[in-house]
Every structure is written in C-alpha cells, then in structure tokens.
Design brief:
- It is a single chain.
- The chain has about 250 residues and is of the alpha/beta class.
- It has a single domain, classed as 3-Layer(aba) Sandwich (Rossmann fold).
- Helices cover about 35% and strands about 15% of the residues.
- A 7-stranded mixed β-sheet has the order 1-3-2-4-5-8-9, with helices on both faces.
- α7 links the parallel β8 and β9.
- α3 packs across α4 and α4 packs parallel to α6.
C-alpha cells in the first residue's frame, strides 16, 4: 500500500514530455511542484514512482538498482507514445537514473539535480555483510532553508542498508556511462547541499559526452531543491531550458 500523497502523477499537455524521477527512499511527491510548474507551461508531465519506494522501508531491501532504473524506463515508454520530445529530469538518485536514460535512449535533453556519483567510503561500502544484522539505519534530521517544507516532504525515515549498497553499485555503473551521454544536459546543484557534495556537479559535467552542457547553482537550499526555498528559481530555469532545447 502506498503512503498517502506519494502517488505517481500525470498531466497531459503538448508534444514535449517531461519525465520526473525522484530520489533514493523518497517519492514522486518531491517532484510534484516541479511537475505542476511544467504542466502550467503546457508540457506533458509524468512523475514516476520507483520500485519499492513510498510503501515501507523493508521493501527496498529487496531492490536491485535495475528495479529503479526500469521503473523510469517504463515511464519513458509511456511518454514516447504521446510526445515528440522527451526530457528525463531527476533529483539525487533520480538524476543518476535520468543520466542513464540519456545514455541509452533517445532524449531531447536531460536535467540532473543534486546528483551523487562518487560515493564516499561509508555505510554503502559495508552494506552487503551488514544488512542481515542491521537492516535499517535511522536518518538524521533533515535541515531545510525553508523549515515549512518539513510538513510537506514525505520519505522513509530510515536508510534500508542493503538498498544502500545497490545505490553504490548503481552510481558506479552510471559513472562509466557518462561519456555516452551526448544529449544537451542541464546540471543543477545547491552550494549548501549537505547530502551530496557540491563539487560532484563539476565532476559529472567533466565526464559527460555532451557538447551542450550547462551548470546552474542555487545558493541556500539543502539537497531537495525542488521543495526548498529556491524552488521557484529552479522551476523557472528548467522550464526555460527545456523550451530552448525542444526544437519544435
């Protein structure tokens, strides 16, 4: 059963399709405000739910990274039948997924926000032998530049340990694929991100095969820039960038 308010969403619009992909342990809800903004510009928008998210944390310890990726691939196929151009747009692990889609499927452009790529030595490094004994690790309190967002945001309150190891493997796979991304790319990050080091943006940018690639920074928001204090700046930038690259 899904956690209330975390359902996937679809807004029918014009020939430009926006595939919105949420992050690790989170839900489509963190992408919904962005989806509403893009739909308001007349685009077709699909916010997918990645496998084993928005139900209960134990489900994620059954995940393999392929499960998350193919949830997004399914979304690409839905939009392909309705749209002339598709833009995968991902936050955090959703950015990892969006970049993999851009490496392997025809897309008009890709947007990756707060995207991890080079995992530090951490819980992820030991998850394969640790998880049978410690299946979950409690998250620390999330800090927001706009504290009111805490009442809106919905995600698991723990990290599923086995799934954390899958995320590490996923990042390594996609890191190797970055030179295969040749579509236009917009990379976004907050300088105040406490989850993914901001320098990761420059690393990803340097590895992409795209000749048309742009970086964009916000200054105050924490990791989830689609919900925090500068979200409207983020929405306007993504909307304008998509329209500049839709080629319709």
């Amino acid at each position: 059963m899904l956690i209330p308010t975390t359902e996937p969403f679809f807004f029918r619009g014009g020939p430009v399709g926006c595939l919105l992909i949420h992050g690790f342990t989170s839900s489509p809800k963190e992408m919904r405000w962005l989806g509403e903004s893009l739909a308001g510009r007349g685009h077709t928008v699909l916010g997918v739910r990645l496998a084993h998210h928005a139900t209960q944390p134990a489900d994620m310890n059954r995940s393999r990274w392929h499960d998350w990726y193919y949830s997004a691939v399914d979304g690409w196929h839905v939009l392909r039948d309705q749209c002339e151009r598709i833009f995968p747009i991902g936050l955090s692990m959703g950015g990892v997924t969006a970049l993999k889609l851009a490496a392997e499927y025809p897309v008009a452009g890709v947007v990756a926000m707060g995207t991890p790529m080079r995992p530090a030595r951490s819980l992820m490094s030991f998850s394969d032998w640790l998880w049978p004994f410690i299946p979950f690790m409690k998250k620390g309190p999330r800090i927001w530049d706009d504290p009111s967002v805490a009442e809106w945001h919905t995600a698991y309150t723990v990290y599923p340990v086995r799934a954390s190891g899958e995320l590490r493997r996923y990042m390594r796979v996609v890191d190797d694929l970055l030179p295969c991304v040749t579509a236009p790319a917009l990379l976004m990050h907050s300088r105040a991100d406490r989850t993914v080091p901001p320098q990761t943006l420059e690393y990803i940018c340097s590895r992409l095969g795209s000749t048309d690639k742009e970086t964009f920074w916000v200054e105050r928001s924490n990791h989830i820039i689609t919900e925090d204090s500068e979200k409207e700046i983020v929405f306007q930038k993504i909307g304008a960038w998509i329209e500049a690259h839709a080629n319709l």
